[in-house]
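Memo to structure team: turn this sequence into structure tokens by end of day. - J.P.
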Amino acid sequence: MHVVCTKDLNTPRMASGMRAVCMVLLICIASAPAAFGRVTVTDDRSDWLKLAQPAKRIISLAPNITELLFAAGAGRRIVGTVDYSDYPAAARAIPRIGNYGELNLEALLELRPDLIVAWGSGSPAAQLQRLRQLGIPVYVSEPRRLRDIATNIEKLGRLAGNEVTALRAAVAFRRRLNALRKRYVDRPEISIFYEVWHEPLTTINGRHLISQVMRLCGGRNVFGDLPTLAPQINLEAVLARDPDVIIASGAGRTRPAWLDAWRQYSALKAVKAGQLYFIAPDLIERNTARVLDGAQIMCRQLEQARLK
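Reply from structure team:
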């Protein structure tokens, strides 16, 4: 496209209507360069990714990535994904090519992808190396901070040529995040044990995104000092750190029965005060825009704990 508006844009000769038209054209061109050619971004491992044009056939290697792609307006471009990619509802109709740990490479290649979006913590390194050797561009997504979710949405939108949609979603996420931060910034601190699973007893450390959600709501992860992202611990460690609140996730949308097993340990502060809570894992353990739904639930739970 050739635009000849810039030279005389601010001269008296240009009618106001013509000036407005030219400004719109210039803004459109500046805000959507990916639609006209090469796309260049860095992924969450600081690797450069270059595409000759926006991707039209994308494969997602994790459920959270599928959600991010839909949020970025690229849902219709996903030609393949992995098990448990169930949100939004349209994701359930996308062909499966295995799970994040084990792919059906033959089925993947038959889909002729021009971009693969992988999960940094879940996609095996050898698997990604093999895909790159086959000449398929790979973008690694690993949002470790809440603000990184918005950035990922923007970058995925750029890769798919959907920058305007992605920008709107990112802006909405940032506004909602800032509103939560402003509301709970000065709340008294509540100590939390987050129980991912009961056998083996598993939690998260301070680098996990869920710990950021805790801090957003005025909470503190009692196992935030552990070196492993999702460490296994023992019962004695929980009793020793004596949290104000216990929050569990489980495997589905219903409260797990094993959460109430803590009631037998009546000396725990969380048990004494009746502070045993549940958040559906899809809303808190997936690094997607819906994590703010989980954050709202957690913030309300901690407010209840403060009242007690």
